[in-house]
Amino acid sequence: GQLLRMNKKPGDWNCESCKYLNFSRREMCQRCGDPRPASTYTPPGSGSGRVISVLRGDWYCTCGYHNFASRANCLKCGASK
Questions:
Q1: 77 near 34, Cβ under 8 Å?
Q2: Per 3-state DSSP, what percentage of the chain is helix, strand, and coil (rounded to 5)?
Q3: What are the boundaries of each domain within the chain?
Q4: What is the rounded distance in angstroms from the CA atom of residue 13 to the CA atom of residue 77?
Q5: Assigned CATH class of 8-42
Q6: Which residues in the chain belong to E strands, given as ranges?
Q7: What φ, ψ does residue 12 adopt, rounded to 5°?
Q8: What does the pLDDT look like over 14-58, one tens digit per residue?
Q9: Distance in angstroms (rounded) separating the CA atoms of residues 61 and 63
Q10: Count of CB atoms within 10 A of residue 12's CB?
Q11: Closest CA to 51 of 6, 9, 4, 11
Q12: Which residue range or ranges hold the RanBP2-type domain (predicted)?
């Protein structure tokens, strides 16, 4: 099996489904493919640990997931904008 990375860096996140530790740059879990929870997103290179704010054009799906304005479909459930 794959080894979990033990050196967690700012912005890295654990998957809610399988608990795998993912690099901060990943939007989906490397192991199981589940999307990163919106509450754990930090802009790459920021190192500040800040949660990114909702920007103009971003939208919330009926499933409750926060999607970026550039997405036509929900990253979590695939529903149309």
A1: no
A2: 5, 15, 80
A3: 8-42, 51-80
A4: 20
A5: mainly beta
A6: 13-14, 21-22, 59-60, 66-67
A7: -65, 155
A8: 888 898 888 888 888 888 888 888 765 555 554 444 455 677 888
A9: 5
A10: 16
A11: 11
A12: 9-38, 55-81
Q: Could you give phi then psi for residue 38, rounded to 5 degrees?
A: -55, -35
Across the range 55-78, mean pLDDT stands at 86
How many whole angstroms separate alpha carbon 11 and alpha carbon 1? 24
Token pair 């036509």 is found at 72
Amino acid (1-letter code) at residue 45: G
Nearest to 65 by CA among 28, 25, 37, 26: 37
32-38 contacts: CB < 8 A, separation 24 or more?
35/65, 35/75, 35/76, 37/13, 38/65, 38/66
Is-contact 39 28, C-beta < 8 A? no
CA-derived radius of gyration, the chain: 13
User: The whole model's pTM is what?
Assistant: 0.44
